[in-house]
Amino acid sequence: MIPREILKKIRQIELRTNRIVTETLAGQYHSVFKGQGMNFDEVREYQPGDDVRAIDWNVTARMNHPFIKKFVEERELTLMLVVDVSGSGRFGSRDQSKRELAAEIASVLAFSAIRNNDKVGLILFSDEVEKFIPPRKGRSHVLRVIREVLFFEPQRRGTDLNVALEFLLHVTRHKAVAVVISDFIGSPAETQNERSRKLRPQVSLLESLVQASFTMLKQANRRHDVVAVQITDRFELELPALGRLVLKDAETGEVVEINTGDARKRGAFADRQAKTQADTARLFRSAGIDAMQLRTDEPYGAALAKFFETREKRRLRG
Fold first, then answer.
1. If 221 and its partner were Cys, which of 103, 226, 251, 260 is the partner (CB 3.0–4.6 Å)?
2. Looking at the structure, do residues 54 and 107 belong to the same domain, yes or no?
3. Could you give the number of structural domains in the chain?
């Protein structure tokens, strides 16, 4: 029996995200994600301007008049949501944590998918694959997906995107839309120079992505249509001026004391984080992966709509 407060939270997310799906995205999901291929539909008479490569020569010979083959895109897709549930996802400086925002984004995409008769599957990962829900259709299935993203209790706190991508390639044989929702923050081993107690911002997964996971990202994107959704919080990008603080890393358990009253340290932190974000964005571009960044302190509807619009325009040009 699911507790009433959990059902209430899931229902609230369903209502909010369905409104965004209806009012903001308005069918863009259908046009920005391609089907698995083209299916033969019918043969019709050739018309000026038709591609001559589509001429059906057998029918043309029999009818003594040019006919062409007409194809339609196979629309049914599988949407795989690959969601990071590591310890850093619990952070949120406002009313919403990164994990809660991830659940809303997953909800928007999942409800968009089932409106187009597509299947939705889920992979939850930390530094191992924590849970896998095979793709299915239907509202009740999507509500289960939302519940798991929100309330699943992972066994581990770290992050390993490489493990999640390897699992994706293993369980999803046919082409799918794979949306990776993560803060892309990890905790690679410290170097000798970093073992001091000076302020050290959280480390992007960039270091590990550049090595093994960079190859895995490209490999996954060759088989699937991979989209990266980075969830961030404003205080991961810039420190508040609150004086001396004691902070604990949610993934490693490391405790550090920092003086946020020092404007130079705040500036250095912001500069380093800005560079990390730029490097991560460049990494995704190099792998040919579309990516967007969403923040817990900003509405996400407009950002999603812009992403869909940009992707749709690029597809039409292609």
1. 226
2. no
3. 2
Which residues, 6 or more positions from 223, have their beta carbon under 8 angstroms from its beta carbon? Answer: 169, 175
At 189 the pLDDT is 35
DSSP category for residue 117: T
Give the per-residue pLDDT at 42.
66
d(CA 54, CA 46): 9
In the prediction, which pLDDT does 33 show? 80
User: Is the separation of the CB atoms in 141 and 14 below 8 Å?
Assistant: no
Q: How far apart are CA 221 and CA 218, in angstroms?
A: 5
In three-state secondary structure terms, 73 is: strand
Q: What is the CA radius of gyration of the chain?
A: 23
Q: Are residues 56 and 116 in the same domain?
A: no
> Rounded to whole angstroms, how far apart are CA atoms 201 and 103?
25
Domain of 260 in residue numbering reads as: 4-31+76-317
* Residue 304 CA from chain centroid, whole number: 11
- Which alpha helices (H) appear in 177-300, and where do they start and end? 206-208, 214-223, 234-237, 263-286
Tell how strand 225-232 and strand 203-204 pair up. unpaired
pTM beyond cutoff 0.85 = no
Give the separation between CA 150 and CA 50, rounded to whole angstroms: 50
Instruction: Name 257's bridge partners.
Output: 246
Residue ranges, the chain, pLDDT below 50: 187-200
Q: Which residue has the tokens 């407009």?
A: 302
| Whether residues 298 and 201 fall in one domain | yes
Residue at 188: amino acid letter: P
Three-state DSSP string of 91-137: CCCCCCCHHHHHHHHHHHHHHHHHHCCCEEEEEEECCCEEEEEEEEC
pLDDT value at residue 199: 44
What per-residue confidence (pLDDT) applies to 9? 87
